Amino acid sequence: MDRRDYFKQYRLKNKHKKRRVGLTLTHDEYRAFVRASKGQKISPFIKACALSSLNKQALIPDDIKEELATLRFAIRNIANNVNQIAHHSNLVRGITTQDEHNLLAHIKQLEDLVIRYTEGRLLDHDN
User: Fold this and answer.
1) Greatest CA separation found in the chain?
2) Average pLDDT for 86-111
3) In 3D, which of 100, 76, 102, 77 has the Cα closest to residue 89?
């Protein structure tokens, strides 16, 4: 079997695995995607946008994902400390209900802060 026949059979065998789709954009739409892609290639960026929308997931840039991973790690450490406090409190019964409410209020403030930060970073990144 020569090279041409091999590739012909390969294409016939694998033609149902992937589909090529063409997309026509106006100049303004294209420029908008170029700005939004921030240096990425346009086709993979548009594909990622479409798939994230289809899956109802946010398209989060890699630099923000790294920041969120760092925040998640910090929050998990805080949650671990809270569990240790709760365990110690249950052993010695030294924490009051007011202390528990204050602790929960601080955790809620932290959660709100992370949400505002994330929303702000995503908005700043888009501009």
Assistant:
1) 82
2) 77
3) 100
